[in-house]
Design a protein that fits this description.
By secondary structure, the protein is of the alpha/beta class. The chain is built from 8 helices and 7 strands, in the order ααβαβαββαβαααββ. The chain has a domain of 167 residues: 3-Layer(aba) Sandwich (Rossmann fold). The chain is 42% helix and 20% strand. The structure holds ligand GEK.
Length: 245
């Protein structure tokens, strides 16, 4: 695994973060050292998919990066005639994801495609995964993305939504942010790396609170929406579309 050194040297001007070739080359190391609970979340996404995948349905991995969630789904899902649509809008991610997934054998076919998740069609879905992707969509477009997912889900289908979340400008929020910085320091990131990454990401990643996320999911029509994982200001939610009566 290549080590993430992208922000280890001072940058004259820190540009907005992009999912380009440099990031792709170090992505597994970067996400593992930056997102508390990442491996636990990815593993349990596969187990949730095992519980909710329906025969003859599609599982969507939106903002798939190198396909970690798709691999977890392939490891655990037992339903018949299931396929995965793995989608990312970064051409560099998509090309690396294709070769990465091709290295693993599985009964479950995966189609990796380059597309913008604000523009895609979703149908016959039993499981939709947004693992740390919605946070990169402009806030005003998020409702439409989630509504499109809800409409494309089969009755009883689920959305797994993982996000970095905000707690507002509270003392508790500052405390969780400090715990996250300490997590990064302990994983070998310097103060310079932490601060340059924060500058690079702040314009492109707008955070929302957990209650805001859960209320929006319920507004859209998910009858159950809850947080199944949280570590500091990183959380994963499970939302279920009601079954037909
Ligand atoms: C994982 N889910 O390892 N359309 C499609 N993809 C997008 C869009 C968009 N509009 N905007 C951003 N992306 C992965 C981790 S990373 C999270 C997801 C992170 C893609 C972007 O190219 C990147 O690959 C991914 O969303 C976010 O389980 O880096 O913090």
């Amino acid at each position: 695994m290549n080590k993430d050194l992208i922000y280890s040297k001072p940058h004259d001007k820190v540009a907005d973060f992009k999912f380009d070739q440099d990031v792709v080359a170090v992505f597994p190391d970067m996400i593992q050292r930056s997102v508390p609970g990442y491996s636990t979340i990815v593993d349990n996404i596969g187990l949730l998919a095992q519980q909710f995948a329906q025969d003859n349905s599609t599982i969507y991995d939106l903002g798939c990066s190198l396909g970690a969630a798709s691999l977890s789904v392939r490891k655990y899902v037992k339903a018949n005639n299931v396929k995965i649509e793995a989608i990312d809008n970064s051409p560099d991610m998509v090309s690396r994801c294709k070769s990465h997934l091709a290295a693993f054998k599985s009964e479950i076919p995966v189609n990796v495609a380059q597309a913008d998740i604000t523009q895609i069609n979703i149908s016959d879905a039993s499981v939709v995964i947004l693992n740390f992707t919605l946070q990169f969509i402009p806030p005003e477009q998020r409702y439409a993305v989630l509504k499109n997912i809800f409409d494309g889900l089969l009755p009883g289908g689920i959305l797994i939504l993982s996000e970095k979340v905000s707690l507002g400008h509270s003392t508790a929020d500052e405390s969780l942010i400090e715990l996250h910085h300490e997590f990064k320091r302990r994983n070998g990131y310097s103060e310079l790396e932490i601060s340059q990454k924060r500058t690079a990401i702040e314009n492109i990643m707008k955070l929302e609170s957990l209650p805001f996320h859960l209320n929006r999911l319920k507004d859209i029509g998910f009858t159950e929406a809850l947080t199944w994982f949280q570590c500091f200001n990183f959380a994963s939610m499970l939302a279920i579309k009601p079954k037909l009566d």
